[in-house]
Amino acid sequence: MTIVLYHNPDCSKSRALKAALEERGVAFSVIQYLETPPSREELLELIGSLVDPPGVMIRKDRRFSELELDPLHYGEEASAERVANLLIDHPELMQRPILRGVTRAAIGRPLEKALAVL
Q1: Which domain holds residue 15?
Q2: How many C-beta atoms surround the C-beta of residue 117 within 10 A?
């Protein structure tokens, strides 16, 4: 399996992680998940490899509020299925950046957390 960066080029944290990988000479592929959203199966696989609980993959930002979603319903302990179902309908709510290493994945907040999965 190849190393994959789930990337949003408009996000400074995502750009910083991409630059850090390039500076270290790490071979990786980039998925701009807003242009090419992962399938439900890909999301479930990614969620299953996270070092954190599934619910951390959901951004609780202004868009989350606009959709009138309940933070308790989508908290850290939300099921993988619930998280995947939400992100299929609203990929913009996916936390970023996410780095999937060979066996584990992590959200790059802080950057070092994601680099630790290499």
Answers
A1: 4-115
A2: 19
Domain count, the chain: 1
The CATH number covering residue 16 comes to: 3.40.30.10
pLDDT value at position 76?
87
The answer to whether 107 is a known catalytic residue is no
pLDDT per position as a tens digit, 2-17: 899 999 999 999 999 9
Which residue among the candidates 2, 9, 11, 106 is catalytic per the annotation? Answer: 11
- SS3 category, 93: helix
Whether 76 contacts 52, CB under 8 Å: yes
Which two tokens mark 43? 């999301």
Going by the DSSP 8-state scheme, the letter that residue 116 receives in this structure is T
